[in-house]
Amino acid sequence: MKKVVVVGAGPAGIFASYFASKSGADVILIEKNSMIGKKLRITGKGRCNICNASDIESIIKNIYKNGNFMYSSIYSFSNEDVMNVLKEHGLEIKVERGNRVFPKSDKAIDVVKTLDRMLNKEGVKVYLNTSVKKIVLDENTNSACGIITENGKHIAADSVIIATGGVSYPLTGSTGDGYKFAKQCGHTVSKLKASLVGIEVDKKIPGELVGLNLRNISINLYKNNKKIYEDFGELEFRNYGIDGPVIKSASCYIDDEKNDKCSISLDLKPALSHEKLDMRIQRDFAKNMNKTFEKSLGELLPKKIIDFVIEISGIDKNKLVHQITKVERKNLVDLLKNINFDVVKLRPIEEAIVTSGGIVVKEINPSTMESKFINGLYFSGEVIDVDAFTGGYNLQVAFSTGYLAGINASSEK
Ligand SMILES: Cc1cc2nc3c(=O)[nH]c(=O)nc-3n(C[C@H](O)[C@H](O)[C@H](O)COP(=O)(O)OP(=O)(O)OC[C@H]3O[C@@H](n4cnc5c(N)ncnc54)[C@H](O)[C@@H]3O)c2cc1C
User: Fold this and answer.
1) Contact present, 307 and 331 (Cβ < 8 Å)
2) What φ, ψ does residue 90 adopt, rounded to 5°?
3) Which of 78, 173, 239, 319 is least surrounded by CB atoms within 10 angstroms?
4) Mind listing the pLDDT tens digit for each residue in 143-164?
5) Rounded to the nearest whole angstrom, what is the distance from the C-alpha of residue 296 to the centroid of ligand 1?
6) Nearest residue by C-alpha to atom 38 in ligand 1
């Protein structure tokens, strides 16, 4: 019987362990936290967006970095497979807007409990509160043959799977250890950067705007004056700048260590053309002829954003509506369709939903997840240089690569 050691009990390591054990291996899963799936518990705002029920091609499209590397693993273990295995182990699931799959209970902890049942059923030995310090290599056979824990304990293995995650949200245990292990084994780690993260902007966000959520807005991202990305959906104002799903997605295209000039243009009324918005404002102004500019915007905009819009419009808030000139009105239309925020920088990587960058994919066999340099060494999950948008795609990457690593690490070659 093959002995497999898996390092890291996040979704990738748990799936790797489950499938390695199911394929007949003797599996030890080592986790430095006192619990499994610590990050998983906070995913999807505590609801866990498990995967996405779209077709496989659109899943791959949403894996914006190294999606091609994922073909083999996602076709081997698809979103349907993820849902089926979780259902088999008692998790009820539902599909929401955007084909996002969640547990029916809306509780991420129920996903963790299901994974725990899976590990128990297959008899995986889980060592909690145990931190791996080093991967042991057999130089004669050029293979991984075990690990050493921080307390100096040596655990021998025929295969080792590294599933230690990235460096985001380090309090959940992902502190980048896997990158060190990979480098120690001769692998290259590409530049790490924050992805799916909030953005600090040039404009000061006034207190009343902080926390305001705008649905149904659209954004354009410009890099050196060239439009490179657009999105439609939800945005949230924060004291440092802007956040929310559309901003998180845009952040994937920004590298603030490069000297690119990036800006985000916000369209507050994407459903209305300039002409239609102008007509709408004229109607509102006609209704409020003798009111002040400030008092005329209540039906058009959320209350909390009115002062901010007035401030950048340059129109006196106390000006009576009938005194507003045509040019001022046209400028207001332009502004509502294009509020510009210059990007100052991304929020720190520790706050990012995912770490972009990782072990370079050309050094890993995409059909097995095995290292191309060291026999019996496998990788799965966020530690690999693969990144996806929000929508359940990052967990899909963890589950699919975990599956492949698990079944291949346990197979007799
Ligand atoms: C706030 C937040 C919300 C998110 N929401 C979603 C979502 O809804 N849907 C989605 O698809 N993705 C979501 N993600 C992303 C998703 O959580 C990650 O992509 C996923 O957890 C990566 O899985 P992993 O198993 O590779 O790594 P992790 O989940 O980070 O697990 C790695 C594990 O390895 C352990 N470890 C590390 N080093 C060692 C060591 N030396 N010895 C022993 N153990 C070690 C860690 O303690 C950790 O438990 C979210 C991320 C965050 C931060």
Assistant:
1) no
2) 95, 5
3) 239
4) 999 999 999 999 999 999 999 9
5) 48
6) 164
